[in-house]
C-alpha cells in the first residue's frame, strides 16, 4: 500500500472498480460535510466509483463535488418508513450493482433501501438496533465528539486510527457559470457581501443582519441576502433597512445559493448549510456562533472569522438547543452589527493585499 503522508490515509487495491454508495445526512450543511467521506474513499480506492443518495433539495450540490460519479435522487419522508418508496429506491440501487454502502445516519430508515437492494457490504454505526440491516457494524460512535469524525471514520478500515487531519469538503464552481449567473441576475461585477441569515433552529439566527446590511451598503458594497423560501420575509426586512444596494436572492433552487456564495467577496452566515457551502467553495467565510460550538460544528475548511459574543460569560453557552430558553438570546444579541462589519472589513483588507 502507498501511504499519503499528508492525510494519513492509505491507498488500497487500485484494481478494484466496484461502485460504492454513500447514504449521507440530508441537511444541507451535513450533506456538504459528507464530501470528506467521498475524498477518503477516493484516496483508499482511486478507481471505485462513488455515488451519493440525495434529496431533490441537496441534489444540485452533487454536480459541484469532485470525485462523485452520480447523485441518486430520492425524497423519502422524514416521519415514516414509506416501504413502497423504499422498494422503488432499492430497485434502482440494485440495478447499479453497488458492492458497498456507507450508511452515515444511525437510523433504521436510512438502511432499509440498501438492504432491500442486496448491497453485499453495508457499513454503519450501531443505532436503533439495526442488526441485519447493517452487516458491517461499527461501534464507538459516541466516543467521537465531532460529526466529521463520526462520518469519515466509516470510510476507513474498521479499527483504523483517525488521520491527523481529514481532507476538507470541496465544491468546485466554474467561473464562467458564476459570471453567467451574475449577468442573468443583473448583479454587475463589483465586490459583494453575501448574507446567510437563516438556519435550522431560531436560536442560531443572529439578530442584526438588517443593520449590518445597511452599514455595508453605506460603505459602498453590494449586499445579497441568500437563503430558501423560509428566509423570504427576513430578506425583505433586510432589504427594507439596507436600501437599494441590498438584493433579495432567496429562492427554491439551492444552485442559486451556491452561485451566490461562489460570487461573493465575503460570506457571512449563521451556523447553517450556507456557511458550509461557502467554506467548501473557498469563499472567505465568517461564521456567527451562539448556541452551538465552533469546535463541533464549524467547517473543517476553516473560517475567515469565527464570530462569537465576548461581552458576557454565559453559563448556558453553548446549549446546542434550537430554541433559546435562558438569558434572552444574549449569545446572539450581545454581538453587534458594528463588530461583524468591522471584522468583515479586516477580512476584505487581507484579501486585497494578497
Structure description:
With 354 residues, this protein is of the alpha/beta class. It folds into 2 domains: 2-155, Glycogen Phosphorylase B (Rossmann fold, 3-Layer(aba) Sandwich); 179-352, Glycogen Phosphorylase B (Rossmann fold, 3-Layer(aba) Sandwich). Helix content is 34%, strand content 15%. The chain has helices at residues 28-33, 35-44, 59-62, 83-95, 108-116, 147-152, 175-184, 209-218, 232-242, 254-263, 273-281, 294-297, 330-333, 337-352; strands at 2-3, 10-11, 20-23, 50-54, 70-73, 100-103, 121-125, 136-138, 192-196, 222-225, 246-248, 266-270, 285-288, 305-307. Strands 5-4-3-6-7-8 form a 6-stranded parallel sheet, sandwiched between helices. A 6-stranded parallel sheet has the order 11-10-9-12-13-14, with helices on both faces. The protein has a two-stranded antiparallel sheet with strand order 1-2. The two termini are 39 Å apart. The model is unreliable at 1-6 (pLDDT under 50).
Structural features:
354 residues, alpha/beta, Rossmann fold, 2 domains, six-stranded parallel beta sheet, 34% helix, 15% strand, disordered N terminus, ADP-heptose-lipopolysaccharide heptosyltransferase activity, Glyco_trans_9, glycosyltransferase, LPS_LOS_Heptosyltrfase
Residue-averaged pLDDT, rounded?
92
Q: Structural class per helix/strand content?
A: alpha/beta
Order of helices and strands: EEEHHEHEHEHEEHHEHEHEHEHEHEHH
Calculate the terminal CA-CA distance, rounded to whole Å: 39 Å
Per DSSP, what share of the residues sits in E-state strands of 2 or more residues?
A: 5-15%
Strand order of the largest sheet: 5-4-3-6-7-8
Describe the largest sheet. 6 strands, parallel
Indicate the radius of gyration in whole angstroms: 21 Å
The tally of beta strands, per DSSP, is 14
The shape is globular
